[in-house]
Write a structure and sequence with these properties.
about 230 residues, Four Helix Bundle (Hemerythrin (Met), subunit A), Arc Repressor Mutant, subunit A, two-stranded antiparallel sheet, 2 strands, mainly alpha, 2 domains
Length: about 230
């Protein structure tokens, strides 16, 4: 089939994808905070891309719940209420517990190696006082390995969506006093349990990690609501 008008512009799609990833990163690391406006013209200038790519990327992030369009303001970074965060973390705990358990049962040796590498990369970034964006990136890579190891495409889709929604909270929770060392310990517990092929222990460790993160996030959001 070689009909005119059916070809896809791969270059534009690639640029749009890069814009999406950059905006997710800027939101996840706190460069853009909840409630901040995302002005198309300013984004085009800062990212040095065309308005179409920015507009399409914003549309995708809105579908993911990272931004919303407000009357007379345009796109803004979504504010997550304490109740919304509680529900997000509850579902995330269930799904990541499933991932930990399934990974322990089904993970290949090369997948276990990647998980260990991701764990140690996060630990190294934490001990070296790496910038927030690097910490967030290392943590995200660990979660990608965890999710992939469960080999369930539906859980992967759901967890990817949830992680996008809570990414804006991750940078804040990790920078709270004493949270980062505990987070490293929890990630190592998950990794050790999976590598030991202990499915139940991996499930519990994965759930505990989300629950501990949830406590910090809810404290922060509740304090912000009262401020």
């Amino acid at each position: 089939m070689n009909q005119p008008g059916l070809k896809i512009s791969k270059q534009r799609a690639t640029i749009r994808h890069l814009v999406e990833e950059k905006l997710r990163e800027l939101i996840a690391t706190g460069h853009f905070k909840p409630g901040d406006r995302l002005v198309e013209r300013e984004l085009c200038e800062a990212l040095e891309v065309g308005r179409t790519s920015v507009r399409e990327a914003l549309r995708q992030l809105e579908a993911e719940g990272l931004i919303r369009t407000e009357p007379h303001r345009g796109p803004v970074v979504t504010k997550v209420s304490p109740e919304e965060a509680r529900q997000l973390y509850q579902l995330r705990a269930l799904l990541e517990g499933f991932c930990g358990a399934e990974f322990a049962l089904k993970g290949r040796d090369d997948e276990l190696d990647r998980l260990k590498d991701a764990c140690e990369a996060f630990a190294a970034a934490a001990s070296g006082q790496a910038p927030t964006e690097q910490l967030v990136a290392r943590k995200a890579e660990f979660y990608r390995c965890l999710i992939k190891g469960a080999r369930n495409i539906y859980v992967e889709d759901m967890l990817t969506s949830l992680h996008n929604r809570v990414s804006m909270l991750r940078a804040t929770t990790m920078t709270q006093p004493d949270r980062l060392p505990r987070s490293v310990e929890e990630i190592r517990d998950i990794t050790d349990a999976i590598c030991a092929r202990d499915s139940e222990r991996a499930r519990r460790a994965s759930i505990l990690h989300v629950e501990e993160s949830s406590k910090i996030a809810l404290q922060i959001l509740s304090a912000q609501e009262l401020a």
